[in-house]
Design goal:
Elements: H1 4-22, E1 33-39, E2 42-50, E3 57-63, E4 70-75, E5 80-82, E6 87-94, E7 98-105, E8 112-118, H2 131-141, E9 145-146, E10 150-152, E11 155-162, E12 165-171, H3 175-186, H4 195-209, E13 216-224, E14 228-236, E15 245-253, E16 259-260, H5 262-265, E17 284-286, H6 289-298, H7 306-310, E18 314-320, E19 323-328, E20 338-342, H8 344-347, H9 353-362
Antiparallel strand pairs: 1-2, 1-8, 2-3, 3-4, 4-5, 5-6, 6-7, 7-8, 9-11, 10-11, 11-12, 13-14, 14-15, 15-16, 17-18, 18-19, 19-20
Length: about 375
């Protein structure tokens, strides 16, 4: 039986130990170089740099099983490194070979120990821009990933992606389908031999920001029959928030494999949605005065948006069996953007010979 006095001493020691585990004291010293070890039970690789004598230190790390860099930003005067709004590192001991600390959630729950050792054969000179840190990340980011089969009705397709850009591959027979797949595959980053430039971009992002920050693209079919397939695309421009998003539609003839450009049916020519690298999100063109006047009559344009429409005649376009849908406005004024659907019958006065023929083929039953 434990005597009361001895029990009290044990209890004090136990509580003190618990307090010590939950209140790690941060170090003011900043680590440098490459490190490997564990965060909780997960294997990680970390790097810490100082880009010159007067530059603030910065860091990055990734889980060995995920291979996606996570930025670490030092907090002035606190000895902590944040990895975003939800978590931070508190380093408690550092020497030439060992680094220890705590990974802590911002809500104070779920502390995990961090134990790292300097990567064998490296020194403080081997930082976040080194091959040792980046090559595993780049191999993963530049790997073309083919996702599982998905269904659009009875039709099958699968996502295909690389470096944040996800397009699709149609799983069907026919020369037209094969041609469409070749076009989509060519629009993936690296598809035109620019892997070296993309690798340099990834390396620079890790060196300067500690993580990959680039535009992301997603795509999925919204219409697919024995004549055409239309995919809807969405692009988020890195670091620009809601104003940096772009949506669009592109349509192909599944028999010939040729992309259908509705602007040609209107006697014009389409351009890229922006002067950016592939893929193309949507086809844009300039509305004729006659067509713009008609659209302004059928669209719901309030006085607060009138100036937005008056200063531009550029529009996006989407063609389907039920008509032509025009996207009016721009992302700088999202409150003024709207889609206007014009039926095949109402489109007739604006179509050239090719357009009228194309619409007859498109809407045949």
């Amino acid at each position: 039986m434990i005597k009361p006095r001895i029990f009290s001493r044990l209890l004090i020691v136990f509580i003190a130990a618990l307090h010590g585990l939950g209140s790690a004291t941060p170090l003011g010293t900043s680590p440098q170089g490459l490190w490997t070890g564990t965060l909780g039970n997960n294997e990680i690789v970390a790097c810490f740099d100082r880009r010159g004598e007067n530059e603030r230190p910065h860091g990055s790390y990734y889980y060995a099983r995920y291979l996606r860099p996570i930025s670490l930003t030092p907090q002035a005067g606190k000895g902590e490194w944040t990895e975003g709004p939800d978590a931070s590192w508190i380093l408690t001991s550092i020497d030439d070979t060992q680094l220890n600390g705590v990974w802590r959630r911002s809500d104070g729950h779920g502390d995990l120990p961090v134990h790292l050792s300097r990567l064998s054969g490296t020194s403080a000179r081997h930082g976040c821009g080194s091959d040792l840190y980046n090559l595993p990340l780049e191999r993963e980011a530049l790997r073309v990933a083919i996702g599982p089969i998905k269904y659009f009705g009875q039709k099958r397709y699968r996502p295909i992606s690389i470096a944040g850009v996800q397009l699709i591959e149609l799983v069907d027979k026919g020369l037209g389908i094969a041609a469409i797949n070749r076009q989509l595959r060519a629009e993936l980053p690296g598809g035109d031999g620019d892997v070296r430039a993309l690798r340099e971009q990834l390396r620079e992002l890790v060196k300067t920001q500690g993580r990959y920050v680039f535009d992301t693209v997603s795509a999925e079919p919204i219409e697919w029959n024995d004549r055409l397939v239309t995919i809807q695309l969405h692009r988020d421009f890195a670091g620009e928030g809601a104003a940096g998003a772009e949506n669009g539609f592109r349509t192909w003839n599944v028999v010939s494999g040729a992309e259908i450009d509705p602007w040609r049916w209107l006697g014009g020519a389409s351009g890229r949605s922006a002067d950016l690298s592939l893929p193309v999100i949507r086809r844009t063109g300039v509305l004729s005065a006659k067509l713009k006047s008609y659209l302004m009559k059928v669209a719901h344009v309030g006085s607060e948006c009138r100036a937005v429409y008056d200063e531009s005649s550029v529009a996006g376009i989407h063609v389907s069996e039920i008509g032509v849908e025009f996207l009016l406005g721009n992302t700088f004024h999202p409150e003024c953007m709207q889609n206007v659907l014009v039926s095949p019958e109402a489109m007739q006065p604006f179509l050239n010979t090719e357009g009228k023929s194309g619409f007859r083929w498109l809407t045949k039953r």
